[in-house]
Specification:
With 120 residues, the chain is mostly helical. It has four helices and no strands. It is rod-shaped. It starts with a helix and ends with a helix.
């Protein structure tokens, strides 16, 4: 394989509709005899490659930034897990205290009712 074919194969994993068009244009560029028109064509091809590389670079930067924000978000969640757990424990303990108080009052009420029944 020629050098430009290897380079096109490297970008094959990147979703791009222009891959085959770039390969065809490279083949045309290398098959033509040197002339002013073919030099202009090569310069345009180089500009297109540069634009595509800039597009990939911008998308990669966005992806990295998104991954960093996601990691920072998960770091915050993990750091606050202790606070969440202690808050949950407090609510559970409050619920248990209220429930035990309710059961104790209900037992006293039942004891009072059972003591009144013989008097009636």
């Amino acid at each position: 394989k020629q050098w430009y074919q290897r380079r096109v194969a490297i970008t094959a994993g990147i979703p791009m509709t222009l891959d085959s068009k770039f390969a065809d244009r490279l083949d045309r560029y290398h098959s033509e005899k040197p002339s002013c028109d073919i030099l202009k064509f090569g310069a345009e091809l180089a500009e297109d490659y540069k634009a595509y590389a800039n597009h990939i670079l911008a998308n990669t930067g966005d992806l990295v930034r998104d991954q960093q924000l996601q990691r920072n978000g998960w770091d915050s969640v993990i750091k606050n897990l202790d606070k969440v757990a202690s808050g949950f424990d407090k609510r559970v303990n409050t619920f248990k205290e209220l429930y035990n108080s309710f059961v104790a009052k209900k037992e006293k009420s039942t004891d009072c009712d059972s003591a009144l029944i013989p008097l009636l």
